[in-house]
Amino acid sequence: MSENREPHVAKFVYDFTEGNKDLKDLLGGKGANLAEMTNLGLPVPPGFTITTEACKVYLDSGEEPAALRDEVSAHLDALEQRMGKKLGQADDPLLVSVRSGAKFSMPGMMDTVLNIGLSDASVQGLAQQAGDERFAWDSYRRLIQMFGKTVLGVDGDLFEEALEKAKETKGVTVDTELAAADLKKLVTTFKKIVKKEAGREFPQDPREQMDLAIKAVFDSWNGDRAKLYRRQERIPHDLGTAVNVCSMVFGNLGPDSGTGVAFTRDPASGHQGVYGDYLQNAQGEDVVAGIRNTVPLAELERIDKKSYDQLMQIMETLENHYKDLCDIEFTIERGRLWMLQTRVGKRTAGAAFRIATQLVDQGLIDETEALQRVTGAQLAQLMFPRFDEAAKVGQVARGIAASPGAAVGKAVFDSYTAVKWSRSGEKVILVRRETNPDDLDGMIAAEGILTSRGGKTSHAAVVARGMGKTCVCGAEELEVDTKRRRMTVPGGHVVEEGDVISIDGSSGKVYLGEVPVVPSPVVEYFEGRMHPGADDADELVEAVHRMMAFADRKRRLRVRANADNAEDALRARRFGAQGIGLCRTEHMFLGDRRELVERLILADTEAEREASLKALLPLQKKDFVELFEAMDGLPVTIRLLDPPLHEFLPDITELSVRVALAESRQEPHENELRLLQAVHRLHEQNPMLGLRGVRLGLVIPGLFTMQVRAIAEAAAERKAAKGDPRAEIMIPLVGTVQELEIVRDEADQVVAEVEAATGTSLKLAIGTMIELPRAALTAGQIAEAAEFFSFGTNDLTQTVWGFSRDDVEASFFTAYLEKGIFGVSPFETIDKDGVGSLVKSAAEAGRRTRPDLKLGVCGEHGGDPESVHFFHEVGLDYVSCSPFRIPVARLEAGRAATQSTGSDHR
């Protein structure tokens, strides 16, 4: 095996004997693995690889590197000498394939051309040498078809239509029944199509064929389908593709030849066995194109036992060598087996977990490597219920897949009806144009949420993910009429309230009627309803349990929950939460308490304000007692009230209409008029940047001190009951240390009063949420008054980018993603260069001031797999996320602690 693992920068072409599997950056995955199989002594047709560096030069300049042609010529000469024949020579032609091969597998996204070197002259020589005229003309028509479509841009349907016409004329149904004479006529037809559509003759010079094909593969890196695939898979756009030039071996030489694909384990389940497909008398593209029915790979044992036995041995060799599931392409040429490709195979989420634990048990990998073989995204797929794919139900619309899962229920159009029907035992889907905090009760009651507006970070999406509810947002094809309690779907069909619909939060699809749902055993495991090791335990649950145990042993980051009530807190604890990182107290003031907060905000006198605070205090205290009991012995970070003010005020339009109607009817309306004047006075053009957070606490005397008192009294009560409350008070939206100092002084005084009144020593940590750029930039000063920072990355992203989170996803994010400005929404995965740099610098500055400063994050990014790795790298102590994302965060924290650059299972 080659010992030289470092590429030579001036070299653009590598023989298969020169590379190895570690040179994927340079040789692409296909080229690196062809080289590795060559090094292992496996039967690989000779060839060479043009590097990704050559592709980058070509894509940057529009021209191939100056040295490339000479290097290709030298390697072609060496290949011709090894094979004892020349490319395209008339009597016994050497034929080659030209295939793409990027670092990361992009199946079917880029171009391939087979049988290069065939021409009007050499096709006769191939026929003579093979003793099979039909084979030669079949290979030639394939070359013209693939070359015309891939290299010359001819519509592929034209070739397919001509092929179908030829079969109809002959009265046959499959291409293998066409005789040599039929295929010879088809070649003439194909060449005419090329001349007409491409404006040039099909090239007869074999070197011109090869050079044009190489350029076509380079160009295919920037094809629409390749770019779309890279965006979907988050593959960088600047990697380029390698090009593999490989001597042809032929599976279409008759019944003792064929081609196939094989997997060393089942990529769907992870089970060991014989998995794959085989097609006699065919070339490789035929298998994936589906032009003829394949047979199961196991049938090869009957067809050609010698090749089958050799293939099984090679598969075992490759799996042991790569220590993973391998995906293999092979060809049998007249009883001789050739290996055309291997790669670490793609797999389902369930297979990933099963295979990782199987390989540990076999001693092929250790626990550290096993963690690199699974991802949080895969775990999330396993946790959510899904629709039965075999069901036949019509899709009527598609929106944004906002919160995964499968939900079925009767359509309802307001929160009240959702709650009412749910209490009667009905399963409902809450359908709205968009949701707001008033819809919370209905969202809780519903099986899922469907909106015609909004994006992944809209109110509906964020709240649904926090609750583990299925949600589809922004289904713009739907016309939602909440007043008439109906929605109209494309085609004019009207869904009335009570009609059953189904929504898929993993795909964004909306269906009429009921789609059967398959439950997730993984959630039952996390909920404690299924126990690993029990007789009825699913083997997938066993695998997930073991991987989670690996992750928990390895991780440094602790994982907390975003939870606002005891029920969510208890669920979070079952899911492995190590405390609450964010309790949003504004959620406690919705519903019945909203009127009290409204009175407080609009109070004209101190007496009115005091009365509202006095009414709220016991309610808040009860909330916190329940939280401390649910999270006994674990930290509970409580954020003081932080609502955009408009959420707690009457709607200005509705109130104006009420006043106008009262005036027109000459009815008493003093209270409504007074309320309208107050709402006008407090109205804000941009409430998200207005009177909220610490500003609200400073402007409304007694608001924050009431909450601090409720927290302190609840902690004292739990201590008296022999509990272990560990409360942390978080001041929101701080932009300057002076704000924090004022609130902290008031809080310290209240805590001291409660301690004196109860005779209890309370150690309540006081810190702040870093969610404004100025707070991040002055973190060193703020740390003088804060015992902890929690980064609110939702608002920090909003304020750093200047985005209105509720508006931008629906308005222009799709265009930004399509144009490649974003690889992924910055609200979904943290923007490391912008927002991330502020998090990093603020963390460092804070700890310079206060070395024992506790650091966490509680935005949506706390449960995002890629973001968790970033937070590990910058040294945060914990992440906090919605209860259903806790297992994902735990797994990714373990992966971050054991990250290996040698593993990449896209």
UniProtKB/TrEMBL annotation:
* Domain annotation PEP-utilising enzyme C-terminal: ranges: 542-894
Q: Which family does it belong to?
A: Belongs to the PEP-utilizing enzyme family.
Protein known as: Pyruvate, phosphate dikinase
Names of the cofactor(s): Mg(2+)
Task: Please list the residues that make up the active site.
Answer: 459 (tele-phosphohistidine intermediate), 858 (proton donor)
Record-listed E.C. numbers: 2.7.9.1
Which Pfam families does the UniProt entry name for this protein? PEP-utilizers (PF00391), PEP-utilizers_C (PF02896), PPDK_N (PF01326)
List positions binding substrate.
Answer: 584, 639, 771, 792-795
Q: Which keywords belong to this entry?
A: ATP-binding, Kinase, Magnesium, Metal-binding, Nucleotide-binding, Pyruvate, Transferase
Return the broad EC class: transferase
Q: Where on this chain does Mg(2+) bind?
A: 771, 795
Molecular function, one GO term: metal ion binding
Q: In this protein, which residues make up the domain named PEP-utilising enzyme mobile?
A: 426-508
Q: Where in the numbering of this chain does the Pyruvate phosphate dikinase AMP/ATP-binding domain appear? A: 66-293, 301-350
User: What is the catalytic activity of this protein?
Assistant: pyruvate + phosphate + ATP = phosphoenolpyruvate + AMP + diphosphate + H(+)
NCBIfam families, per database record: PRK05878.1 (NF004531), pyru_phos_dikin (TIGR01828)
